[in-house]
């Protein structure tokens, strides 16, 4: 592959010092960054030179929790609490999902994520072979898992576990490492304890991380106490979950002791502020997590509870929400919000050696924003503008592993019109009550 260099950009490296390089450049070859620094005078050695004057170049965003197939249910059931939303709206429709529903729901998600600057996503869902195939075809990077709900007879539990394991073993490392996998019990309230232990044992055997919903609502915490005599964190600790590298989604309702436990085991958190607000679940103790050194990353959850996959919105939300909630404007500064959407996201999906920042040796996963638009001016603090003023609609170009996937706002690897048409067709076929 030829050497490419992008010059005259404002480069947000998101390295250890959050360095911003004005009139900066990044170069890459074979999908790997070979240069990050000021625009060099000598450009003869590069096969392709891209002038990014008036643009911001930054790491691709990492969405650490979602269910991509559920974009098919965007707007279908709003303004309900989680349990009612799941039991009366989501699960009855998902029970009708075939591979084709997941294909077009996931395609809708992938196009949206790519066009709004997400280059890596986590997906916990069913029919995951389809999701993996689409990930490969789209050029995105992902950490995928077949989510298992254990509220079913033992034979069914075993079938799901075997399916999840086979998927995880088959796809881990696929597409030159762009697809990685995990094992995923859906939650402590949907999986009996012995089932969680079996899933974790399988994660040990396959040497994979664990992903799970945890402590999302007060109802869930109380249910855990009623059923097992402990709150979810102690429950999962006892079941050995945290002995594996673990990414928990939500982590809204936590005591001080539970926060200490997460810090002790280096459990990664996917904070989903917009979904938590929309479902009325509550506000996670993010400033207390940060104080303890817990890795806090950002997730959208699905389009059915968000209702989009624009991670720029989560970045702004996390920076604002906790300031307002604690009446303290110092909390979650813009630099930390940006890190949550990039390098902390990379840590949360256990890929920080490869993605999350623009540094030589890392993968060339990056996005280019049009910073000529009026709300990027005066242009003295690009990190502030990216977090507080920008949106996913400002993303012009997207590269993963050095391959361009979005060019001037158009997705090169997916047929957007066909995706929209098919998603509408598949939604129309579902029987609604
Ligand atoms: C089979 S794994 C995916 C499963 O998760 C459900 N889901 C979607 N959003 C949430 C959420 O916020 N909390 C808990 N579970 C959620 C989805 O409906 C799928 O069945
Ligand atoms: Zn979820």
TrEMBL record:
Binds 1 zinc ion per subunit. Signal peptide: none annotated. Its cofactor is Zn(2+). Its EC number is 3.5.4.28, 3.5.4.31. Zn(2+) binds at residues 65, 67, 213, 301. Keywords: Hydrolase, Metal-binding, Zinc. Residues 56-403 form the Amidohydrolase-related domain. Gene3D superfamilies: Metal-dependent hydrolases, Urease, subunit C, domain 1. It comes from the Bacteria. Substrate binds at residues 94, 146, 186, 216, 301. It is an enzyme of class 3 (hydrolase). SUPFAM superfamilies: Composite domain of metallo-dependent hydrolases (SSF51338), Metallo-dependent hydrolases (SSF51556). The keyword Transferase does not apply. It catalyses: S-methyl-5'-thioadenosine + H2O + H(+) = S-methyl-5'-thioinosine + NH4(+); S-adenosyl-L-homocysteine + H2O + H(+) = S-inosyl-L-homocysteine + NH4(+). HAMAP family: MTA_SAH_deamin. Belongs to the metallo-dependent hydrolases superfamily. MTA/SAH deaminase family. Catalyzes the deamination of 5-methylthioadenosine and S-adenosyl-L-homocysteine into 5-methylthioinosine and S-inosyl-L-homocysteine, respectively. Is also able to deaminate adenosine. This is 5-methylthioadenosine/S-adenosylhomocysteine deaminase. It comes from Aneurinibacillus thermoaerophilus.
